[in-house]
Write a structure and sequence with these properties.
With 230 residues, the chain is an alpha+beta fold. It contains eight helices and five strands.
Length: 230
């Protein structure tokens, strides 16, 4: 069996990342970089494999805790702390490993579960559009505007331009109210009504517009302000 140290440089994860980029690496190789080293009993490659097996695959890392990590042979305090910190950081920057596997995006609670982290700690309004395919599966999200919604800031042209580029069939708007009150303003209502009408003309339908407040939200769809798009 070839030891990790004996591998040619071009086959080592760090060198492969530099040469080919992170996307070219397997889950195991990325974990090897994070783990840095193995133990007396396990090489770093074996340790990465063991971690994946213990978590039942890469998605299992989402729910891993410091205590659970310590129960994995070869994972000590330092590695457990670093791994949990990386998992938490990925949540905070909105990188959810399961987001592209969403079955549908028509439930406001599901949408908030995946995208609420985008607005944590924001001091001004930020406006995102979530683009869906013809089966309402997630395609992409775009932050298109920053600031209060009004006709001079938000223009449907940019929203639908991105929809055409992505070949999207549906879209969901989501923005925050830093005040904490999720009730839509008059501008929010007028903008949503206008966007809904334009979407129907273009065959790219508005599924919902969600306003995020402090531990509360307002859904135009749930409140029957958007009809017949689901």
């Amino acid at each position: 069996m070839i030891k990790f140290k004996e591998l040619p440089d071009e086959e080592k994860p760090r060198e492969r990342l530099v040469l080919y980029g992170a996307k070219a690496l397997s889950n195991e190789e990325l974990l090897m970089i994070i783990l840095k080293s193995g133990t007396k009993k396990y090489s770093v490659k074996e340790l990465a494999c063991q971690l994946l097996k213990s978590c039942d695959g890469i998605k299992g890392l989402r729910d891993i805790t410091y205590q659970k990590l310590l129960k994995i042979e070869g994972i000590g305090q330092v590695k457990a702390i670093e791994l949990e910190a990386i998992v938490e950081l990925s949540r905070r920057i909105g990188v959810d490993v399961d987001v592209k596997d969403m079955i549908t995006c028509t439930n406001p609670e599901t949408i908030i579960y995946y995208f609420n982290s985008l607005f944590k700690g924001k001091k001004q309004e930020e406006f995102y559009v979530i683009y869906l395919d013809n089966k309402k599966k997630y395609l992409d999200k775009k932050k298109l505007f920053v600031g209060s919604i009004n006709s001079s800031v938000v223009h449907p042209r940019e929203i639908f331009k991105q929809a055409y580029l992505l070949s999207a069939s549906y879209l969901i708007c989501i923005h925050n109210h830093p005040s904490g009150d999720p009730m839509p303003s008059r501008e929010d209502v007028n903008f949503t009504d206008n966007l809904d009408k334009i979407g129907k003309m273009h065959g790219i339908y508005l599924v919902d517009h969600i306003v995020i407040g402090k531990e509360q939200y307002y859904s135009f769809y749930e409140n029957k302000n958007i009809l017949n798009n689901n």
